[in-house]
Amino acid sequence: EVKTVVENEFVFGQEIFGSDGAFHDGGFRITKGGIVQAPGMERKSSMGELVDNVPPSTTNIIYIKSLRDIDYIATLGAGASGQVELAFHKQSKSKMAVKIVNVFDEERRKQLLKELETLTTYVSRFLVRFYGAFYDGSGAVHVVLEYMDSGSLDEAIKVGGKVPESVTKQIAMHCLRGLSFLHQYNVLHRDFKSANILLSRRLNRSKLADFGLAKELGEVSKAATFVGTMAYLSPERLKGSQYTTAGDVWGLGIS
Predict the structure, then answer these.
(1) Confidence label for 18 from pLDDT (cuts 50, 70 and 90)
(2) What are phi and psi of 98, to 5 degrees?
(3) Has 99 been labeled as part of a binding site?
(4) Which of 113, 125, 114, 79 is nearest to 99 (CA)?
(5) Half-sphere exposure of 48 toward its Cβ, with a 13 Å CA cutoff?
(6) pLDDT value for 111
(7) Where is ATP annotated to bind (predicted)?
(8) What is the DSSP pairing of strand 44-45 with strand 34-37?
(9) What percent of the chain has pLDDT over 70?
(10) Residues 11, 65, 113, CA angle at the centre, nearest 5°?
(11) What distance in Å separates the CA atoms of residue 188 and residue 182, rounded to the nearest whole number?
(12) Which residue segments constitute the domains of the chain, with CATH numbers given?
């Protein structure tokens, strides 16, 4: 289905690029000044709760007006969903991670929209913090995220080897809190793996990241789409059967 073309705009596949420099798709309207329209969903948050003596995240709000507010420092890496850059926000003097997604790539665009839907709806101290998304006018959306200074659990294992049991316990507790928050709203992560567990020595915190395959089940109790990373899939998912939130917990165990 092709969306209706309005004056001074053109259609490329399923998305619309407007003369105002905006990217339109999936209920989102993203300009060089950020997200100006998002799907009408109720925001769900657990930021104010005290959980197992883990204090609430800082209440400081970092407001980014445009990409001109940040300087790109270095490339952190590249994955299936896009390239990730280390950036510096000049006003708050904070480091940030910016995921750059090519919207001309249909699969990456779908994952971008799903990630934005999740990040703008579900807010928890155990999910990576979202600061905004900006269309650069050249075919890419820049998603500005919290910078976790110790990288991913996957990187930590590759560099340092076996993680001490006491640290593993803390990481697992934080991950379970993040999953519990998502699961109470019937949301599956569906790509839970060590590369999507981010660590911060500064915050003494582990957080879940990369929600490009997340799925809100709604009134349906199970999912059936075969997606995710093979090594972390639960037996029922490998068999192509329907699966539930338990599949995410399996991924945590493998991680």
Answers:
(1) low
(2) -120, 120
(3) yes
(4) 79
(5) 2
(6) 93
(7) 99
(8) unpaired
(9) 84
(10) 40
(11) 7
(12) 5-146 (3.30.200.20), 151-254 (1.10.510.10)
**Between vectors from CA 64 to CA 126 and to CA 49, what angle results, nearest 5°?**
25
149 classed as catalytic: no
**Can you tell me the distance from the alpha carbon of 41 to that of 122, in angstroms, rounded to the nearest whole number?**
10
Instruction: Report how far apart the first and last C-alpha atoms of the chain are (Å, whole number).
Output: 40
Q: Rounded mean pLDDT of the chain?
A: 85
CA distance 109 to 101: 7
pLDDT digits (tens, 9 = 90+) for 79-99: 767 799 999 999 999 999 999
- pLDDT tens figures, 206-243: 999 999 999 988 777 889 899 998 999 999 999 999 98
Long-range contacts of 75-83 (CB under 8 A, 24+ apart): 79/195, 79/210, 80/108, 80/111, 81/108, 81/111, 81/112, 81/115, 81/210, 81/212, 82/108, 82/112
Choose the catalytic residue: 25, 191, 210, 248: 191
